[in-house]
Design brief:
single chain; alpha+beta; Elongation Factor Tu (Ef-tu), domain 3; eight-stranded antiparallel beta sheet; flavoprotein; Riboflavin_kinase_bac/euk
Length: 163
């Protein structure tokens, strides 16, 4: 898979940032705006992806992302939900989230229960932590995209696809 670079503002409306409880832990997921999802390149299918993420001009962290209709919740609109694998001290409403999608884990699938969904999320995160430590993925963390000030990457899909 060639990698894709996406950058957009994280909205303060609750529909864009939500928390999934997992035992005593919280997974914070952010949704990209519909305009970003609607303009994804055609070769990006639904499923679970992984890569790197940066909030504003901060540090770069591992991330896992779901692109699709979230069958468990029976969504009717395609979404792009990103979980940055990092514990933030505060929310990042109103800040820019930039991601580099570097790999694909699995297709989107339905779950019979919330516990089954949570177990899959946990498994995906553990797999991503291992995959992103591989040299071919570590080098992508150093892309020029993450060194560019966020004001010049706002609301973009790069690799020839721009909003």
């Amino acid at each position: 898979m060639s990698f894709y670079l996406v950058s957009s503002k994280v909205f303060s409306d609750n529909k864009w940032l939500y928390i999934i409880p997992y035992f005593k832990f919280l997974y914070i997921c952010t949704n990209f705006p519909e305009s970003v999802v609607d303009n994804l390149p055609a070769d990006i299918s639904t499923g679970i992806y992984y890569g790197w993420a940066r909030v504003d001009n901060g540090d770069i962290h591992k991330m896992v992302m779901s692109i699709g209709w979230n069958p468990y919740y029976k969504n009717t609109k395609k979404s792009m939900e990103t979980h940055v694998i990092h514990t933030f001290k505060e929310d990042f409403y109103g800040q820019m989230l930039s991601v580099a999608m570097v790999g694909y884990i699995r297709p989107e699938r339905g779950f019979k229960s919330l516990d089954e969904l949570i177990a899959a999320i946990h498994s995906d995160i553990e797999e991503v932590k291992i995959k992103l430590d591989l040299p071919e993925h570590l080098k992508l963390k150093e892309q020029h995209f993450f060194k560019t000030p966020v004001s010049t990457t706002a609301n973009q899909i790069l690799n020839g696809h721009r909003l």
